[in-house]
User: Fold these one by one.
Assistant:
Number 1:
Amino acid sequence: MNNDTYSQNQPLAVEASGLVKVFGKQHAVDGVDLAIPQGTVYGFLGPNGAGKTTTIKMLATLLRPDEGQARVMGHDLLKEPDAVRNRVSLTGQFASIDEDLSGIENLILIARLMGYSWRTSKKRASELLDAFGLLDAAKRQVKKYSGGMRRRIDIAASMVVRPDLLFLDEPTTGLDPRSRNQIWDIVRALVGTGTTVLLTTQYLDEADQLADRIAVIDHGKIIAEGTSGELKASVGSGVLHVRLLDPAMRAEAQKLLIEVLDTPVHLSSDPAALSAQLSETNRAAQALNALDAKHIKVSEFSLGQPSLDEVFLTLTGKPADNTDKKEGVRE
Amino acid sequence: MSTENAQTKQDKMKSALVEQSRPARPNGLITSLTFAWRALLKIKYVPEQLLDVTFFPVMFTLMFTYLFGGALAGSTNEYLQFLLPGILVQTVVFTTVYTGVALNTDISQGTFDRFRSLPIWSPSPLVGALIADAFRYTIASIIVIILGLVLGFRPSGGIIGIVLGIVLILIFAFSLSWIFTVIGLLLQTPKSVMGISMTLLFPFTFASNIFVDPATMPSWLRAFVNANPVSILTTAVRGLMRGRASVGEMGLVLLSSAILIIIFAPITMYLYRNKR
C-alpha cells in the first residue's frame, strides 16, 4: 500500500490493521489495512461478495472483527464501541429506514433517538426533507418512494446529527443516471461540511467521480490502493471497444490490433466485438486506421474508461466474480 | 433547472448540514418510548394488524362458548364464567408472536442495522417494541372483557379482579416475548418466525386448562397441563377474577415470568449484538 502521500500528522478517520472476519470457513475479510484521512472520500471498489459490506459493518461496530484492530475517529473499535457510534452513521445497501412509515416520521424517529425534543425533531426533519428535495413526499410512506428518493431519505436520516464519518454502502446501485447524479451532489456537499465519507461501489466511474482514494477489494483483500489517477495508470488510460461489420473478420482484426497496439486484445461475448486496453488514448486512431487499411469494416467503436471488469482483469488476471450472492468469499 | 435554483438548493443543503447543535444523549426510557411510538404509528398504516387482537378473540370466545359450552359445562353461561379468563390468556399469548415477527422484519429491511449503529441504550428497540405490544394486549383484553360482559360474564372479583388479572397477563406476555425475540433473531424470514412460533405455542395453549378442567385427562397429559406455565397463568387469572386469588398462584406466575426473562433476555441481547 502506498501511504506516502499522506502527511504524517494528518488526523485519520479510520486506522485499521489486519482486520479479519470469518463466516464459517469463508474469510469474508482477510487482513485489511486502512488509513483514511479525515475530510476525504474513500472508495471501496469491488464486486459483490468481495468483503466491502463486511468491512463497513465491522467499522460501524455492527460486527466484531475476528482478528485485527481499528481506531475510528480516534476511538478504539473494540474498547469504545459507544464512542465510535457517537461519531459515525451508516447508510446500508438496502434502505435502512422504516418503509412502513412516512419520510418525515422516519426523520423524526431518528431525531428523537439522537436526543432532540419533539419540536426540534419536527423542525430538523422538515429542514432535511427540504434540503434533500423530499418536502413534497414528506407524508408519503417510504415504500412508495422511487429508488432515488429512498436513497436520499436514507442519507438524510444519517444527517439528522451530522456524523464525522459516514458509511455509504453502494449508494447508487440500481439508480437511474439522474438520481445517481443527485446522490453524487449530496456526497460532495457532505464532504464540503467536513464529514469523512467511506463509500462502497461496484462502479469505477463512481469511485473516480467521488473518491480521493480508492481501495480495490477482492476476496476479502485489498489488491490495489491509490488515487483514481494512480489506479488508472496501472490499468491503462482507457479501453477501445470495436464492433466489426463482419464477425468472420474478428480473428484477423485481433491479430492486427495486437500488432498495432502492442497490448492484449480481448474477444467479447458478442461474436463481432473485441476490446483492448490502451496505454495512451491517441493510440485509438492508429488502431482504427490500421483496420481501415486492411479493409476490415467497423460498425461501432468507443473509447471508454476501464470498467470494473477490466480493472479486475488487469489487477488479478481474471474477471470479477460478480455473482449475486451475499457478502462472503468462496474458497 | 436554472442556475439560481441550483444555487438555492445548494444553500439549503449546506445550511441543513452545517447549522445544528448536537443534542445531549437521551436516556434509555426516552429512546424506548420513541421506539414504542414508532410501532404504534405502524397501526395507522397497517390497521389489519389489529385484526388478531380484535377479530380472533371475538371469534374464539363465541365459537367455544356456543359450540362447546353446553356440552362441556352443562350450560353456555356457566362455561363462559370458566372460559373467559382463559380466552384472555390465549389471545394475549398468541399475540406475543408478533414481537418476533416485527423484529425479523426490521432485520430483513435493514432498519435493524441503523438502529444498532446509533449511540443509544442498545436494548431500547426491543423494549420499545414490547411497550407497544403491551398496548395491543391491553386493547385485546378490553375487547374480550367487554364481549364477555355482554354475553353474561359476571366475575365476582369485580373490576379490581379484572384489572389485576389483565396486569398479570401483561407481565407474563412481556416475559414470554423474549422467546420470540430469540426466534426472530435466529430465523431468516418473518414467515418462518410466524410458522415456528405458532407451532411452539399450539401445544402450550391447547394442552392447558384454558378450555377444560384437566381432571378428566390421562395422568401423563395432566402432569404436562398442570406444569404448563399457560395453565399456571390461567389458574391465577381465574382466581383474581373470581375474587379468590391465592398468593401462591400469583407467585408461580411471577416466578415463571422471571425465569423466562432470565433465560431468554440475555440470549436475545447476545444475538442482537452479534447478528451478522
Number 2:
Amino acid sequence: MGRGLVALGLGAAAVAVMQASFNDYLLTLASIILINVMLTTSLSLTNGLTGLFSLGHPAFMTIGGYVAAILTYPARRKGFMMPELPEALAVQQWDLLPSLLVGGTAAALIAVLVGFPVLRLRGHYLAVATLGLIIIVKVLVNNMDGYTRGGLGLNGLPQLTNLWWVFGWTALSIIVCWRIKHSSLGRTMMALRENYMAAQCMGVSALGISLIAFVTGAFFAGVAGGLMAHLITVITPGTYSVVLAFNLVVMIVVGGNGSLTGAIVATVILSIASEALRPVEEALELYGLSQVILALCLILMLIYRPGGLFGSAEPALVRRWFTRRSP
Amino acid sequence: MTQYYVQQLVNGLTLGSLYALVAIGFSMIYGIVRLINFAHGDIAMVGAFSTLGLVAVGAPWPVTILVVLAVGALAGVTIEAVAFRPMRNAPQVTGFIATLAVSVVIQNVGIMVFSGQPRNFLFPDVMRTRVPLGPATVSLTDLVIVGVTVVLMSLLVVIVHRTRLGMAMRATAENLQVARLMGIDINRTIMAAFGLGSALAAVAGLMWGGRFGQIDPLFGFVPGLKAFVASVIGGVGSIGGAVLGGYLLGMAEVLFVGLLPPEYAGYRDALVFTTLILILLVLPNGLLGRGVEDRA
C-alpha cells in the first residue's frame, strides 16, 4: 500500500498545482475528465471485468444527481422550486458529502431492483433493460414536476464541487475497483466473463457476483451524477443521456476489457479529443461529426484490436509499481 | 362515444403493426445469431428519409415502397458485413457494442446530412379520407398501414416456411453448427435474415412517418427499443411471438394513454420499459419463445 500512498500523494500534488495555476475553464474541464474517469472505472466492473453490457450509468447519474441536488438545495428557495416536497425535507439543506452518499445509495438501490430480475438471465437483456432504465428515469423525472421542475430541470444549484472533491471520489473509485479486481471477487468476475457456464459449475453464483458488480458501479455513478450536478450547477432530465452511455462504453472498449489503467488512459485521451473536436464541429457546422468519428474508431478497434489498448491486464509498469513485494 | 373507442382500437392496431414489423427483424436476427441489433430502429429512420427523397423526385407510391424495401435490405446487409461479420467469433458483447456504434453512426450522419430539425412527412391527401367501418369511421392511412403490414407478414411467412432459403434460416436458428455441417451457406443465411428484417423495418419507418407526420434523424431509436421489448414479450427468436408482442404492446400503450386520466399520459414510455423488466422477471422466455439451454 506504500506505493499506493505515493501515487495518491503525487495525484494530490498535481491537483494542488492545477488549483493554483488553472483558470476556471481548465479547472472545470479537469473536473469533468476526472468524473469521466470515475464513471469508466466503475462501469468497467460490469462491462470490463464481468463481461456484462450495462448502459445504465446515465440513469444512475440522474438518480444520484437529483437526489443530491434536492438535498443540497437552499431551503429558502425550495418551497418555490419544489412545491410538493414534504415539509420534513423542505426545511433541510445538507452538505455535499452526505447528499452524495444518499444519492449514490439511492442509485444502488434502484440497481438492485433492476438487476435482480435482469441479471438472473444471461447478459443479453441487461443492455436493453438498462437503456430502458435511462428512459424510465427520464420520464419519471420529467413528470414529477413537484419535486424536479420537470423538463426545466433544477438550476442554480450551489457550486459545491471542486477539483479536490472530484479527485477524492475518483481516487476512491479507482482504489475500490483495483482492490476488487485483484481479489478473489475480481477473479470470480473474470471467470464469469471468460466462461459463464464453467464458472457456475465451479460454484460461482452468477447472479450474486453480477449484482455486486452492477450495484457497486451504480453507486459510484450516482455519486458522479451528484458531483457533476454541483459542478455545472444545473441538472435536467436530459443531462445524462444515451450518448453519454455510449461514450463511456467506447472509452472502456478502447482502454481494454477490464484494464483499469486502460480505462483511465482512454478516458483522458478521448475526453480531451472530444473537447478539442468541438470547435471543429462548430466551424464546419457538422454537428455529430465527433460522435461519428468516435463510433468509427470503436468499430475499427473491435475489428482489429478487440482487446483494446491494454487487454485485460494492467501494463507491466503499473503492475510492478503497485504489487507488494515479499519482504 | 363508439367513435372514440373504435378510434383507440384502430390506433392500437396501427401502432401495433409498426412495432410488429420492426420486432420481426429483431427476432429473426436474434434467433439466428443471438445478437440484439441496436441499429435496427435506425433502419426505420433510413426508410423514412429515403421516402422523403423519392417523393421529392416524384416517384409513384408503389415504386417508393419497393425502393424503400430495397434500401432497407441493403442497409441491413451492409450493417451485417461491416459491423457484424468481422467479429462473429468474438464474445457476444462485442456484437452489441458494434451495433450500438453503427446506430450512433447512422443517427449522426443523419444529423449531419439532414440537420436535427424535424421535417414534415405527408402522405397524399387521399389517405386522409375517412372510411366507414361499422358504426364509426377510420382514416385510410390506418387501414393501409394495417393492410400493408398483413401483406408483408404473409409474404414473410411464405418465405420462411415455403422456400429453401426459409428452411435454411429455420435450420440455422435451430443449430448453427449443425446447419453448417449439413451444407447450408451460413453467411448467406445470416445476410438474408438481416436483409429481410431490415426491409420490413424500413417500410415501418415509411409508415411511421406518414402516421405521425414528422420525422427527424433520431426518431427511430426509441421505437426500435420498444419493438425489441415487443419481441421479448412474444419470446425473442419467434417470428409469431414478435407479431403477437408487437400488437399487444401497441394496444397496451394506446389503451394506457386513452383510458387513464390525461396526467398519466406522460408515463407511457416508462410503462413500456417497466413491462420489459416485469416480463423478464416472471416470463423470461416470453409468451411463445422457447428456453435456450446453454450447452458446454
